[in-house]
Each structure stands twice: as C-alpha cells, then as structure tokens.
Design goal:
The protein is built from 5 helices and no strands. By secondary structure, the protein is an all-alpha fold. It is elongated and about 110 Å long.
C-alpha cells in the first residue's frame, strides 16, 4: 500500500482543470514568449554576444551540473589534441584483437587463392565430385540418345 493512506484509488480523487483555467495559462505563456522576443530585439550587439556566451555555457552544463559548482580532483578533463601531437605519436601497436583480425583476413585470402588454384583438399574433393557428376550426366545423355534412336527405328519399321 502506498504511503499516505488511500489516495489515488481508482475512480476517486481525480481533478480536472476547467477550460477557463487552461485558456488563462495559455495566454500567460504567449505573453511571456512575446515579451522575451521583444527584449531580444531591443538589446544591443554586445549584450547579445555576452548572452550567447552565457547560453552556450548553460547548454554545456545540463541538469545538476549547472546548479552546483564542483571541483573534483579525480575528474580527468578531456583535452583536445592538436594534429601535430597526433602525427608525432606515429604508428601505434595494434591490439591483440586487431592483430588477430588482420591475421584471420590474410589466412582467409591465402586459402581462397589456393582453393581457386585447386590445391586445397576441399577444392580437390569439389573437383572430384564435379567430375563424377559430369560423367553421370554424360552417361544419362548417351542413354537418352540411344533410347531416342531406338524409338525412331521402331517407328520407321512400324510405318513400313
């Protein structure tokens, strides 16, 4: 059971705002927006620059960060590196996963090259299977040819 007794039970205690209240709130919001727009238009350039700086700073700090100033000694701030610094680091060592991935790709390429040349066991097995199938198809074609010739010979005898 929630704290505070029996509040929020189904069908009880629902409050609806009347349309007049909603209209009043919408008018107040429109007036606020209009007055904010008028203030922005009347301000000078220098004020706009300073306000844009403040706005960008407040956008960077979202949530609680904008409200509380904290100096955490353990927090590591990310500093942007210059292009010169990045290039000076030079070629870095690859991680174990990267090395394994490259090695895997190279071995796959070697295998495919050998496979296309017919030097692997799988390629030999494939070629042998293809030869058997080819032989079977040739035999079936010869058989069909012989049967067709026999039928033609029988039909020729039957016509005489």
């Amino acid at each position: 059971m929630p704290r505070g007794g029996k509040k929020g039970h189904k069908g009880r205690g629902k409050q609806f705002s009347n349309p007049e209240e909603i209209d009043r709130q919408m008018r107040a919001q429109k007036e606020l927006e209009e007055s904010a727009g008028a203030e922005k238009g009347s301000s000078s350039d220098s004020e706009e620059e300073s306000s844009s700086d403040e706005e960008s700073e407040s956008k960077r700090r979202s949530g609680v960060e904008g409200l509380i100033e904290i100096e955490n000694p353990n927090r590591v701030s990310q500093k942007s590196k210059k292009v010169v610094e990045l290039e000076e680091s030079g070629p870095r060592e690859l991680s174990r996963r990267e090395r394994e991935e490259i090695e895997k790709q190279k071995s796959k390429e070697r295998y495919m090259k050998l496979h296309l040349e017919g030097k692997t066991e799988q390629a030999r097995a494939d070629l042998a299977r293809l030869a058997i199938i080819k032989k079977q198809r040739e035999e079936a074609a010869k058989k069909r040819d012989e049967l067709r010739k026999e039928k033609e010979a029988e039909e020729a005898k039957a016509k005489r």
